[in-house]
Amino acid sequence: MIGRLYTLLLVLLLPYMLFHLLWRSRRQPEYRRHIGERFGFYPGKPATPLIWLHAVSVGETRAAVPLIAQLQTRYPGHRILLTHMTPTGREAGRQLFGDRVLQGYLPYDFPFAVKRFLRHFKPEIGLLMETEIWFNLVQACKKARVPLLLVNARMSEKSARKYGRFKALSRDSLQALAAIAAQTGADARRLVELGASSVEITGNLKFDVEVPPSAIGLGKNLRERFGATRPVFLAASTREGEEALIMEALARIGIPNLLIVIVPRHPQRFEQVAEMLTQRGIRFQRRSTNEAVAPETQVVLGDSMGEMFAYTTACDIAFIGGSLLPLGGQNLIEAAAMGKPVLIGPHTFNFAEVSELAVQTGAALRVADADELALMVGELLKASEKTQAMSVAALAFSDRHRGATERLMALIEPVLERRDCRMGGA
């Protein structure tokens, strides 16, 4: 009965879903493409067995890189099917993997759509990245005997409260999964409280992401364009409202010759941030122009996709956005992997444990607000010994937490082997 009510609610929300696609397509026309896939209609059937991995958007897609590499190495006879929910995730997948994987949108959680998806692709196994628990999808996979795993799983307190409002659905969905691999002990505890019967702690895949040499080369090139002697502060993955707070605070501090690089989290906000800078009379250049930065330029607007490692290489200090305002923060692992001093705001509930560990080990500093952020930037730029100590701590922190991919493969391989045995004996 609860499942039927859930599906009825989805049907009632269908006009909103279509309106949402059209609304988002005003700034991202890609939302108007491949709409049929969102309802289970796909071109051309694959000719080889598939391992299906679902990565909602950009962050999950990048995190999946080491796992996909291992799956392709160990199962060369299988093709990877990579599904997303956002165009930016799909584009990130295209940039990272090209035609080495199949790509598509995961359909909305209507029973007819998910059944059509499973009939079309017939995946050997399904891997859902991070926090994707869809009732009809999980039940359809169980009925079709497709083992479904929740991997690199995270469950913040906020997300746990949301899922907790639908206890029966959450419990049934979690218990129908073949396995659950959580990032941290706190994530595992919340998943168990929601009804999961068994959860393994495998760590965070993002620690295993290798920095591409091309990204380092691009970062060095960017640094030359920024000005080799200018101090460079990176505001990475900023969210709405944060850019203005940062600019106002840094202006009050008045750090000589400082270049601020702002990279908004969502590409649809590039124009919005550009308009804010223009209205405030701030001299800025766009990264997309690919030009050397003029000495009088105050801000570089990072209006490019897939270059965060390069931006981090080119900076002296990195602030991780989404944390000045109560938005939950973004992941600091990429910046730590580059050995950069990391600053975070007070709101990091989406990445609570990794943020706290980074602070405890000296890899990151937490600031209370934008004013303290600006003061800390000024202090760090003057204190080379402190920035060097933070850099060493960041690299050690990143190295210490590697290994999630191997632990996750140890969980996936037996499931695939059992599946192969059943199929071979059928």
In short:
The protein has 426 residues and is an alpha/beta fold.
Write the layout of secondary structure elements.
Elements: H1 2-24, E1 50-54, H2 58-63, H3 65-74, E2 79-84, H4 87-97, E3 102-105, H5 111-121, E4 125-129, H6 135-143, E5 148-153, H7 157-164, H8 167-176, E6 179-182, H9 185-193, E7 200-201, H10 213-226, E8 232-238, H11 242-253, E9 259-264, H12 270-279, E10 284-286, E11 299-301, H13 308-314, E12 317-320, H14 333-337, E13 342-344, H15 352-360, E14 364-366, H16 370-382, H17 384-400, H18 404-425
Parallel strand pairs: 1-2, 1-4, 2-3, 4-5, 5-6, 6-7, 8-9, 8-12, 9-11, 10-11, 12-13, 13-14
Helix pairs in contact: 5-6, 6-8, 10-13, 11-16
Please explain how this structure is put together.
This protein is an alpha/beta fold. It has two domains: 24-203 and 403-425, 3-Layer(aba) Sandwich (Rossmann fold), CATH 3.40.50; 213-400, Rossmann fold (3-Layer(aba) Sandwich), CATH 3.40.50. 48% of the residues lie in helices and 14% in strands. The strands form two sheets. Strands 3-2-1-4-5-6-7 form a seven-stranded parallel beta sheet, with helices on both faces. It has a seven-stranded parallel beta sheet with strand order 10-11-9-8-12-13-14, sandwiched between helices. Helix 11 packs across helix 16 (370-382). The protein starts with a helix and ends with a helix. The model has no long low-confidence stretch (mean pLDDT 94).
CATH architecture of the largest domain: 3-Layer(aba) Sandwich
- Percent strand equals 5-15%
The helix/strand class is alpha/beta
**What's the number of extended β-strand segments?**
14
The major pleated sheet works out as: 7 strands, parallel
The residue-averaged pLDDT reads 94
Low-confidence stretches: none
- Measure the end-to-end span: 34 Å
- Briefly note the CATH topology name of the largest domain: Rossmann fold
